[in-house]
Thiamine diphosphokinase (Tianweitania sediminis), 211 residues
Amino acid sequence: MSLFTLLLGGDLQVTPRLASQIVGSRVIAADSGIRHAGALDVEPELWVGDFDSSDDRLQALMARVPRKPFPAEKDFTDGELAVDLALANGATELVLVGAFGGPRPDHAFLHMTMALRLAEAGTRVLLSSGHQEGVPLTAGLRGFDYPENTLFSVLGFTDVVVSIKGARWPLSKRPVPFGSSLTLSNFVSSSLSVELHSGQALLLAHISTQD
């Protein structure tokens, strides 16, 4: 297994949980995402992008990091280019740090849909801002280690059929049409497990940052 952490341009709150999730990983930064390197105490091996979101101060501060520049007028986001480079270097598992929040909600949407595509192709993916985690669901049963009372939602990107156990409001092979709010705002009550019987979905959990 080869774990890569990709530093993206969204929000970040460093937590012990997130720190433990990226231990031993290789790190690639996408444009302004490199600002998270100091907070996470990591050294990127590569800095990717057109650098239109990185000001002169940040570029000077991180001048030691090798760069792979791309033109501003390109077909892919800096984050997707970073993902492609990680996969080309053997990544089998990705942690997308800074995947949520920030000034570009369209990028956050892309990160979620890209994670679904990658997971279906066999790459394990975690999206995180420290206080939020996203896990793409593939067909079958998946267990989670979230503490009791953790708020979570199952976001359907198509019509889905889903079972949820260990939650305040469990479901059993429940059809959920695309656009329904049925699987939003649930709470963990014991050992949470989600089984996706059909469709495409992502679990989004709101992580306590009190510890």
About this structure: The CA atoms of residues 166 and 191 lie 5 Å apart. DSSP finds five helices and 13 strands in the chain.
